[in-house]
Amino acid sequence: MITALNIRFPCIRRASIMQVEQATPKTDGVEDAVIAILSQNAQATGFPFRPEPVVLKIEEEGRVIAGLVGFTNWEWLYIETLAVDAAYRGKGLGSKLVEQAERIALERACRGVWVDTFTFQSPEFYSRLGYKPFGQLEDFPQGQRRIFLRKLL
Q: Start and end of every N-acetyltransferase domain (predicted)?
């Protein structure tokens, strides 16, 4: 595994060697720094990148048994992750989370929701909620497809 790589960047003011390093997610502050750079670049185009988190959970006896993580930006909600504990699947918890996220999206003046899932993760779940496919990646992972779905609100 490569954890650091020295690269010469002649386009930088001082032709120096900088190191590309593997960062620790959520602790090194890299995500925030990258978003700040993206925001500066997007500001110039008139489309500032200002994602607002959507984080929902369902608990039982103080334990999270289902949750949804995503964000709204540019009038769209992106559902990044939806998970329901195996013991609680089929009880409508996932649907309730998605419906609540859609309500939040509407409150934030979003016009749609998009999500990606996999053929091995029941894309039919989203179809039942009115989501329509708009793209896919074959063999992601091997023998499966990553499916992109959207729903207009």
A: 7-153
Domain hosting residue 42, numbered range: 1-49
Indicate if the pLDDT at residue 19 is higher than 60.
no
Q: How far is CA 91 from CA 21, 86, 125, in A?
A: 44, 11, 13
Task: With beta carbons less than 8 A apart as the criterion, state whether 94 and 81 touch.
Answer: no
What's the pTM?
0.80
- Average of pLDDT values for 32-50? 83
- Is residue 117 within 8 A of residue 81, CB to CB? The reply is no
Between CA 94 and CA 98 the distance in angstroms is 6
Residue 32 structure tokens: 């925030």
Residues 14 and 65 in one domain: no
